[in-house]
Amino acid sequence: MQIDLLDTFLDLAETRSFHRTAERLAVTQSTVSARVQALEEAVGSRLFHRSRAGTDLTPEGKRFEPHARALRHEWNEARRRIRIPQGAAQLLRLGIQNDLAALYLGDWVAEFRAAFPETAFYIEPDYSNQMCADLLTGILDFAVMFSPKPHPDLHFESVGEVAYQMISTETAKLADISPDRFVFAHFSPAFEEMHRQLTPELATSPVSVGQSASVVSLLMAMGGSGYVLRKSAAALVASGRFLTVADAPDLRQPVYAAFHIRHRTHPFHRKLTQLVARHFPQG
After folding, report:
1. Cβ contact 125:131 at 8 Å
2. Which of 19, 26, 46, 186 lies in disulfide reach of 192, CB 3.0 to 4.6 Å?
3. CA-CA-CA-CA dihedral for 215, 162, 164, 238, to nearest 10
4. 191 to each of 93, 186, 187, 194, how far by Cα in Å?
5. What is the rounded distance in angstroms from the CA atom of residue 122 to the CA atom of residue 103?
6. CB 29 within 8 A of CB 22
7. CA 162, CA 167: separation in Å to the nearest integer?
8. CATH architecture of 90-161+254-277
């Protein structure tokens, strides 16, 4: 199967630009045109209308688009199903938000293995946007993430939330926190917006990072203040080097389980969602 024809069609349906699709797929525009032509010949219909105003799907193209997404997903899933490690009945490819991996991955996988002893696991810490893309194409089976990207082929369920707490090597009072000594966090777009709204005086910090572990590393090396996962905060305060900034608001980040819409009622995916949710308080 020439899966690159479907990849090109779906990318062009999104970008509406032969030039942009060629850039994203790292091919020439002539290659994009040739792939589109080959696919149109294969399905027997014109899929795109190209004009000075841009590139748009024809009515036939619009009808073909959901089938193309399903075909691509089935193809990638089929390829993975025949590459199962010896001794396993199935392979699960799991994505997990980078910020959650260090603190939760061990417990989750232990519970997954206990519940599904004949399943092999391939685990990839990543960011939400990439995990959504990988779920769509069939590269991932299941993901735990911060920022769902709505799509008709994806299913998201809230499994709870994680709390972030402000700690400091210098002070226990929010009023005494200096922006110049603060590490600003952007763990997700929603978290960043909440952070800016609740602590606007700290948004001018010269350092901003996207992982709790990175905040910890910077604070350990340079001192200062910042938000870290509450579990990490407790251990750091217990070490005696850090103080809890008691009057700073806790910031809460929702957590979601995500998988392809065709698996939304599958017992395997339902059980994975339940196991993940056990580790988070509900918002």
Report:
1. no
2. 186
3. -90
4. 27, 6, 6, 5
5. 18
6. yes
7. 16
8. 3-Layer(aba) Sandwich (3.40)
147 and 193 in contact (C-beta within 8 Å)? no
Nearest residue to 219 (alpha-carbon basis) of 235, 200, 204, 203: 235
Asked whether residue 76 carries a pLDDT value surpassing 80, the answer given is no
Q: How would residue 73 be classed by pLDDT, with cut points 50, 70 and 90?
A: confident
The listed CATH number (3.30.1330.80, 3.30.460.80, 3.40.50.300, 3.40.190.10) that belongs to domain 163-252? 3.40.190.10
State the Cα–Cα distance between residues 207 and 212, nearest whole angstrom.
13
Question: CATH says 3-78 is which class?
Answer: mainly alpha
Strand ranges for 9-76 from DSSP E? 48-51, 54-57
Residue 191: pLDDT band with limits 50, 70, 90: very high
- Cα 250 to Cα 78, 137, 238: the distances in Å are 44, 36, 18
Alpha-carbon gap, residue 156 to 260, rounded angstroms: 9
Task: Indicate where the chain has its CATH 3.40.190.10 domain(s).
Answer: 90-161+254-277, 163-252
CB-based contacts of 225, cutoff 8 Å, min separation 6? 166, 167, 168, 169, 170, 171, 177, 178, 181, 182, 183, 219, 245
Give the span between the Cα atoms of 224 and 133, in whole angstroms. 36
Q: Which residue has the tokens 């819409």?
A: 261
User: What DSSP element (H or E) covers 98?
Assistant: helix 98-115
Considering the chain, tell me which residue range(s) the CATH 1.10.10.10 domain(s) occupy: 3-78
Element (H, E) at 88: none
The answer to whether 162 and 283 are in contact (CB under 8 A) is no
Q: Is the pTM of this model over 0.90?
A: no
